[in-house]
């Protein structure tokens, strides 16, 4: 896999045309004009920009389905779009079925970048963090949340199969930032977790590991299952003799550590631990070092994802890094299309991550 470029090289500042499009969109929402917008000369004068920039800004509004451009005629406002814009501004509403602090969503790089891009385009941003949605029957709460809301694109993060199916049946504009569960057909943007599982299995095989402990979340999401699928598919298709022992990381850290210690005390213990989430890999690293096991000399450690909290850690973790800017850009474009009333394909948009070799993956040792 190719190493992704630095985030700063992908940073895109708002162009003058983007700013002009935002100003025009707001003027339309406030009902500044009727069915016809002023001509290019007049718009250029009012906005203090050039006519080519005015044309670029109008093209953006046309792409969003707000105006209709016809050569030789003044730009016409789409009647259905004017009605929507005159009411509430277009909004993206993030829905997370857990408390804000439980998964470190504050400062989440993809969400932060998406929120910034939407702000430039005059699109509102709302957040709903609700632990009750994580229950078995979230339908009533979802119905009250969505009822009466128009011109909203619902952004699902960490959603269960029940929540995803509800939004699919409700037929409201919905984007899954993650993977869809089996049987759910919604637009989605996610990292290619299947590819991570496949690649990780290949790395472990090349380093001679024959027994691997997989630390998975207590309630795995679709992406977690896809990663496991990729891992096992590689082993099956490549006819590799690797035993994968799945360990569910429940609510008790003591229980997780006890299970791992029992595995490591066996006659043929795991020689590598593959963690799905960063908190678990940090727990494993500290626990292994405290118990006198060297990483990676005695046991290898790798993680499916990364976070700023581990980027400067010692030893550097072997992990996978998602291209934040690319994920955010894809998600923003899809949300824009849905808010404009355009048809959006439900074929998953999967982004390839970058492998960070780190220092915690080495050749397997038979015993401690």
Name its key features.
368 residues; Rossmann fold; 12 helices; six-stranded parallel sheet; disordered N terminus; alpha/beta; Arc Repressor Mutant, subunit A; 17% strand; elongated
Q: Would you kindly provide a written description of the structure presented here, covering whatever features stand out?
A:
The chain has 368 residues and is α/β, with parallel strands linked by helices. It has 3 domains: 7-87, Arc Repressor Mutant, subunit A (Orthogonal Bundle); 91-191 and 324-351, Response regulator (Rossmann fold); 193-322, Response regulator (Rossmann fold), CATH 3.40.50. Helix content is 39%, strand content 17%. The protein has helices spanning 16-29, 40-47, 51-63, 79-87, 109-120, 139-146, 161-170, 193-206, 222-237, 253-264, 278-290, 324-339; strands at residues 67-68, 76-77, 91-96, 124-129, 152-156, 174-177, 188-191, 211-217, 243-249, 272-275, 300-303, 318-321, 349-351, 354-356. The protein has a 6-stranded parallel β-sheet with strand order 4-3-5-6-7-13, sandwiched between helices. The protein has a 6-stranded mixed β-sheet with strand order 9-8-10-11-12-14, with helices on one face. A two-stranded antiparallel ribbon has the order 1-2. Strand 8, helix 9 (222-237) and strand 9 (243-249) form a beta-alpha-beta unit. Helix 8 (193-206) crosses helix 9. The longest helix has 16 residues, at 222-237. The two termini are 32 Å apart.
């Amino acid at each position: 896999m190719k190493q992704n470029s630095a985030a700063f090289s992908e940073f895109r500042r708002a162009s003058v045309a983007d700013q002009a499009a935002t100003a025009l969109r707001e003027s339309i929402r406030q009902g500044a004009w009727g069915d016809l917008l002023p001509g290019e000369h007049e718009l250029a004068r009012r906005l203090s920009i050039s006519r080519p920039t005015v044309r670029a800004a109008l093209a953006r509004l046309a792409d969003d389905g707000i105006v209709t451009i016809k050569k030789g005629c003044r730009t016409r406002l789409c009647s259905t779009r004017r009605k929507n814009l005159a009411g509430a501004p277009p909004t993206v509403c993030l829905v997370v079925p857990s408390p804000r602090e439980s998964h470190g969503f504050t400062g989440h790089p993809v969400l932060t970048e998406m929120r910034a891009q939407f702000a430039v385009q005059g699109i509102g941003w709302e957040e709903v963090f609700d632990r009750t949605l994580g229950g078995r029957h979230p339908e009533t709460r979802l119905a009250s949340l969505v009822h009466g809301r128009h011109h909203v694109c619902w952004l699902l993060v960490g959603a269960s199969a029940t929540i995803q199916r509800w939004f699919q049946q409700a037929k409201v504009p919905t984007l899954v930032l993650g993977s869809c569960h089996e049987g759910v057909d919604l637009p989605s943007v996610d990292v290619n977790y299947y590819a991570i599982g496949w690649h990780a299995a290949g790395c472990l095989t090349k380093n001679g590991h024959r027994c691997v402990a997989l630390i998975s979340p207590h309630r795995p999401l679709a992406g977690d299952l896809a990663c496991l699928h990729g891992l096992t598919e590689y082993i099956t298709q490549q006819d590799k003799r690797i035993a994968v022992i799945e360990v569910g990381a429940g609510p008790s850290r003591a229980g997780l550590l006890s299970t791992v210690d029992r595995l490591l005390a066996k006659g043929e213990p795991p020689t590598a631990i593959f963690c799905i989430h960063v908190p678990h890999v940090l727990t494993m690293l500290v626990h292994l070092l405290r118990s006198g096991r060297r990483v990676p000399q005695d046991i290898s450690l790798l993680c499916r994802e990364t976070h700023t909290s581990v980027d400067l850690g010692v030893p550097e973790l072997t992990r996978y890094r998602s291209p934040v800017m690319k994920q955010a850009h894809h998600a923003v474009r899809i949300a824009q299309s849905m808010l404009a009333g355009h048809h959006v394909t439900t074929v998953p948009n999967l982004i390839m991550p970058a492998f960070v070799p780190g220092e915690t993956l080495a050749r397997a040792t038979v015993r401690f």
